Amino acid sequence: MSNDLATLAWLVEMGADEAIADAPVDRFAAAPAAPSRLAPAIPAAMPADPPSPGSARPAPEAAAAAPAQGLSTAGGAEAAASARALAAAAGTLAELEAALRGFDGCSLKMTATSTVFCDGVPGSRVMLVGEAPGADEDRQGKPFVGVSGQLLDRMLGWIGLDRATNVYIANAIYWRPPGNRPPTTAEVAACLPFIQRQIELASPEILVLLGASAAQALLGTTGGIGRLRGRWHDYRLPSGRSLQTIATFHPAYLLRSPGQKRESWRDLLTIKNKLSGPAN
Ligand code: URA
Fold first, then answer.
1. Is 153 within 8 Å of 231 (Cβ atoms)?
2. 242 C-alpha vs ligand 1 centroid, how far in Å?
3. Per-residue pLDDT of the chain (280 residues; tens, 9 = 90+)
4. What 8-state DSSP symbol labels residue 232?
5. How many domains in the chain?
6. How many other C-beta atoms can be found within 10 angstroms of the C-beta atom of residue 26?
7. In a domain, 232, yes or no
8. Which range of residues forms the domain containing residue 91?
9. CATH number of the domain where residue 214 is located
């Protein structure tokens, strides 16, 4: 293979599989010469966590092939502190979205096309949090619009939920990781204050975490989805409010492991029963 073809194949593998402008833009050249306060830096010291069963990502090679870029530990702590201050200052979802769009502390933003903030109806009784946007979400700027989103819509429909009327949806990570690699610990930490604040402001009665990495990020655990799913967690937000939260398999995992749909159906019924029971 020629060098040009090899470079092209590598770009496609990394997720740069679509032209978004007529002329190329070298975003690294366009960045200021002096390192900015929250400049994306050095690969994270910690390698990305391996994807676990029940996650959106098919575990193996892609993750290993793609080096995890993140923020250096010091930069990561600074980015997370900046994210916490920005998120805490937002009094509405619109303010939070504006703050997120102005935030440069997560290096995933540099390679993504869109900031994927939400879909559905804020204020719904149910809020879903997924892992991270994929290629379709990055292109359209909305969560769960690809194949796994179509399965998610069908699953929601089985229990009378529909993003056009009674569900609000976001992700634990707001930008597509290149090549759909797992986000680094620093990238998760930079997004966490925003998603926590988004949950507070959307104020659902029930929070549903889709997949291992969303569950681990928000519940602050390294437990596998097999043990986390299917039961109610009393999730405490930074404001002190506690929220009935359940984790379940990610729809992308169900597409790869249809044998788990039975367990997923149980989880959906648990959610349905909670919704038809006495209000919290
Ligand atoms: N998978 C996710 O976790 N989120 C999306 O938005 C799309 C796919």
1. no
2. 25
3. 566 665 555 555 455 555 555 566 565 555 444 434 343 333 333 333 345 566 676 654 333 333 344 445 667 889 999 999 999 999 999 999 999 999 999 999 999 999 999 999 999 999 999 999 999 999 999 999 999 999 999 999 999 999 999 999 999 999 999 999 999 999 999 999 999 999 999 999 999 999 999 999 999 999 999 999 999 999 999 999 999 999 999 999 999 999 999 999 999 999 999 999 876 5
4. E
5. 1
6. 7
7. yes
8. 70-276
9. 3.40.470.10
> In a 10 Å sphere around its CB, with 0-12 CB exposed, 13-18 middle and 19+ buried, how is residue 89 labelled?
exposed
SS (H, E, C) 192-228: HHHHHHHHHHHCCCEEEEECHHHHHHHHCCCCCHHHH
Cα 30 to ligand 1 centroid, rounded to whole Å: 29
Report residue 67 as tokens: 């080096």
Residue 32 domain-assigned? no
Q: Is the pTM of this model over 0.70?
A: yes
Q: Check if 132 has its Cβ closer than 6 Å to any atom of ligand 1.
A: yes
Ligand 1 within 6 A of 15 CB? no
